[in-house]
Amino acid sequence: MNNIVTFKDVSWKRSGQDILSHIDWELKKDEHWAILGLNGSGKTSLLNIVAGYHFPSTGKVTVLGNEFGKANLPELRKDIGFVSSSLERFTHILENQTVEEIVVSGKFASFGLYDKVYEKDWSKADNLLSSLRLDYLRGKKYILLSQGERKRILIARALMSNPSILILDEPCTGLDLLSREEVLHVMNEIAKYNCHLLYVTHHIEEITDIISHVLLIRDGKIVASGPKQEVLTDELLSETYKMPVKIRWEENRPWITIKNNIRMANLENINI
């Protein structure tokens, strides 16, 4: 299967309002994408369509060979891992579970273990912890973990089911510098698991080596999509973020700066 995700002229409305408009986009085999845009640009809505939680108002969507309208979406979701801040609502369930129990629960897409767990499942969870450099957390309860450790354990949990697509929706939100870099290291290890990454962030410096392509979205419409070196330009990012910016590359990662003229204009408009 060469095309992992295909959107053809896809639009999505909510309460009569256009959230996504005429989206044409493809994620192909062995590609890993970052999705960038301002709040309210449509990023999360696009992810929810990929994961089968929203159905397009118009257009054609195919995910992992499953055409929406003909596919069993609950079955499709079993092949998609999803890590986002929305999982925090399950903290009260997770807090007294051990790291190993949480990772194994990813096999069943449950929060808590309600099915029989085999020795091979525990072994797989153990291997995931080792591969993602989380060995030191074995036996610890979720409530004792830092925010960064929790994010990394939830990524390991998502990988437990061998997903073909892994969606990471702003996983570094609220993390300090060290915790963020630890999460990004885990993200770079995902290439070993033969899944395709969709990574949403507000911070382009989080676009690490594993990311091959970038989708820029503004007001529900695509500004640009393609290989990251072609898409991450001053002009295209300025259009996406609605302000003049410039980009530089250091350590093979992009970094963004707001141009002085817009920064000074904003300061002059502040009433002190």
TrEMBL record:
GO terms for molecular function: ATP binding; ATP hydrolysis activity. Keywords: ATP-binding, Nucleotide-binding. Gene3D superfamilies: P-loop containing nucleotide triphosphate hydrolases. Coiled coil: none annotated. It comes from the Bacteria. PROSITE patterns: ABC_TRANSPORTER_1, ABC_TRANSPORTER_2. Residues 5-244 form the ABC transporter domain. InterPro entries: AAA+_ATPase, ABC_transporter-like_ATP-bd, ABC_transporter-like_CS, P-loop_NTPase. PANTHER family: SKFA PEPTIDE EXPORT ATP-BINDING PROTEIN SKFE (PTHR43158). This is ABC transporter ATP-binding protein. It comes from Cerasibacillus terrae. The lineage of its organism: Bacteria, Bacillati, Bacillota, Bacilli, Bacillales.
